[in-house]
Design goal:
Chains A, B: This is Cob(I)yrinic acid a,c-diamide adenosyltransferase. The structure is a homodimer. The first copy, chain A, is α/β, with parallel strands linked by helices. In chain A, α2 runs parallel beside α3. Chain A is globular. The longest helix of chain A is centred in the middle third of the chain and has 18 residues. The two termini of chain A are 27 Å apart. Chain A has a single domain, classed as Rossmann fold. At the A-B interface, α1, α2, α3 and β6 of A face α1, α2, α3 and β6 of B. β6 of chain A pairs antiparallel with β6 of chain B.
């Protein structure tokens, strides 16, 4: 819980207000739990501000994050806050009509849509969930990602999650949190359970 | 994203199913961001399962977590998932009629209510937000907390957040995640902003 006192005041020609409202690029990485969960928790704040929220899930699992998805969709439909658009690679991106051959192609299609949405300023808060993986695997060029994110127009906050976030992304990010595993129930032989893991 | 394969199978006399459904004690600690945010993100999963969720905020700040609070309350009232009870120390616990002299007394009152709710199995998922602090400061006895949590009846999941979580709590926990700060906007002179920090 930061107390609001920056440790340095940079010579960047910005007023405190301009600096305060600068759009953020955030990365949640590391081997521990909570990377995606914290990103979806942040989306609650964005929703509360009335901001349009865009979620892109760069994974192919059906089981994970159903709770977050349903909650965010109920919130988006409630009319009490911002809208919520939820895009899932695992079910085939909604804007792609043809069958995608493989995960690599699907990941690239997801990134193309993120680029279009950033250019159009479609959302104000983006969750690029597990997007660190396609960069790590070389499916999406991290140099291009950094260039596009650095040049994004307006006030669009972006949070990227996933293990092995590449170094150029970490360097470009305003905020990086590393979730470290200290202890996990699976170490004691316990499998994941409903309501906790998904 | 664990793949569901535990690394060991313990000799605890439990079936896989019994072990899978064992209630969890979880701790989010460390100096980085995301400790509370990930806990509230987990609460979305609990809500989606229809579980009664109880939040106890052991802090005295009005500004923080308004987004999460409003979102969880809208979800709780939607009738689409579990109920949500949100208790705030900062506004005076709702069940305490008299003025509380100080934070230490208020923290102890909060813990007393947690004990009553655990004994009555009032909720199925508890967020004890920033509860690590009153333990760290010696306001609430960590030995008693560990005893009560270890002996809690039924299936009640508990997540405790806050820096400096005491060692006996970490030892008793099933899951511990340490959120480590790698980079934060305040290091670059940027103050916290609406929609991101609260």
């Amino acid at each position: 819980m930061p107390k609001g006192q920056p440790s340095v005041v940079p010579q960047d020609g910005l007023t405190t207000r301009q600096r305060r409202n600068r759009p953020l690029l955030m990365v949640h990485t590391g081997t521990g739990k909570g990377k995606s969960t914290a990103a979806f928790g942040m989306a609650l704040r964005a929703w509360n501000q009335g901001w349009p929220v865009g979620v892109f899930q760069f994974v192919k699992s059906a089981k994970w994050k159903v709770g977050e998805e349903r909650a965010l969709k109920v919130l988006g439909a409630s009319g009490e806050g911002g809208s919520v658009a939820w895009h899932k690679m695992g079910e085939g991106w909604s804007w792609v009509q043809r069958d995608l051959e493989d995960s690599e192609e699907a990941a690239r299609e997801g990134w193309e849509q993120v680029k279009r949405d950033l250019a159009a300023e479609t959302h104000r808060f983006y969750v690029l969930d597990e997007f660190a993986y396609p960069m790590h695997w070389g499916w999406v060029d991290v140099g291009e990602v950094v260039d596009v994110l650095r040049a994004r127009p307006g006030t669009q906050h972006v949070v990227v999650t996933g293990r092995n976030a590449p170094q150029p992304l970490l360097e470009a990010a305003d905020l990086v949190t590393e979730m470290g595993k200290v202890k996990h129930p699976m170490d004691a032989g316990q499998k994941g359970q409903r309501g906790i893991e998904w």
